[in-house]
Specification:
The protein is of the alpha+beta class. It contains 6 helices and 17 strands. The termini are far apart.
């Protein structure tokens, strides 16, 4: 049977029985279609057919023509790191909770996947962030992020004070728990819980959302994607800060260090089955469009 993709890579955490069931079902279906199937060796899936090749995640995108992440948005972020810099698209099956990124439901997984294999899909190119953490006397630490780069307090119970500069212009001195710098994709993640706006994923914008700011006037702002953002600890800040990207620790920001965040040259491509609708996902996940009197009826 002809297919637009002949080598499929799978990523998922088999400790979750729901994920393990979906991994097994999809792998068997793909093998029955005569396709090659690879899986991230860290997935620990022991109930898969022997013909499924196990590879380190760093090698998965070198062998596969399509990566499928089964789980929640955290699994999608993990898979995204594997495809950065490679022209390998990513498709998500939602076995998590909210699932803004993984949009294929497990009940329709096989039918939706067959449609994608036959060439019926929508390509969705997503922008990335590039970050560099400069530390005095040490080489910089760098990363790419699909959702966000976050600076946050290192010590519980003590706020940090830091300065924000955008494209060389001083913006503000913040006091609080930190700051989320999010892509349009990441606007529905941590930044949203900080009061940030939802940005359509195809809009070239970045969100800067303070985390528990000390003053109520310190509000989220939206800037152009080409903005060069720089963060520095204020001299009077009593504690260092920690920098994370998509939930992974990059390193510590101390006095004298600087964090630079901006648009990355690279991007990644999601694949969606036919009929993908960003606003339908928002309605589903955020329970929009329902009557306050009867939440089971449309508003």
């Amino acid at each position: 049977m002809d297919s637009h993709f002949s080598r499929i890579g799978l990523i998922g955490w088999s400790e979750d029985t729901r994920v393990a069931d979906s991994l097994s079902a999809l792998a068997q279906h793909l093998l029955a279609r005569g396709l090659q199937v690879f899986i991230d060796s860290a997935s620990g899936a022991g109930n898969l057919p022997e013909r499924v090749a196990r590879l380190p995640v760093r090698d998965l995108a070198d062998q596969a023509e399509l990566i499928v992440a089964i789980g929640g948005d955290g699994t999608m972020l993990y898979a995204a790191q594997a495809v950065i810099g490679r022209s390998v698209p990513l498709l998500g099956v939602n076995r998590g909770r909210l699932g803004f990124l993984a949009d294929v439901s497990p009940t329709e997984m096989i039918d939706r996947f067959d449609a994608v294999l036959s060439g019926q899909y929508q390509e969705d190119v997503r922008a990335l962030l590039s970050a560099s953490l400069e530390r005095p006397g040490q080489p910089p630490l760098t990363c790419h992020a699909l959702n966000d780069v976050v600076i946050q307090k290192y010590e519980t119970g003590r706020m940090i004070e830091f300065e924000t500069w955008i494209s060389g212009t001083f913006v503000n001195t913040h006091g609080g728990d930190g700051l989320v710098i999010a892509t349009s994709t990441g606007s529905t993640a941590y930044a949203l819980s900080c009061g940030g706006p939802i940005i359509h994923p195809h809009l070239d914008a970045l969100v800067l959302a303070p985390i528990s700011p000390h003053t109520l006037s310190d509000r989220p702002i939206v800037v152009g994607r080409d903005s060069a953002i720089e963060l520095r600890l204020a001299q009077r800040s009593p504690t260092r800060a920690q920098v994370t990207f998509d939930g992974t620790v990059l390193g510590d920001l101390d006095h004298g260090g600087r964090l630079h965040v901006g648009a990355a040259r690279q991007s990644i491509t999601f694949l969606h089955p036919p009929g993908h609708d960003f606003f339908r996902i928002l309605r589903s996940k955020l329970h929009w469009g329902r009557s306050a009197r009867n939440p089971d009826e449309p508003g």
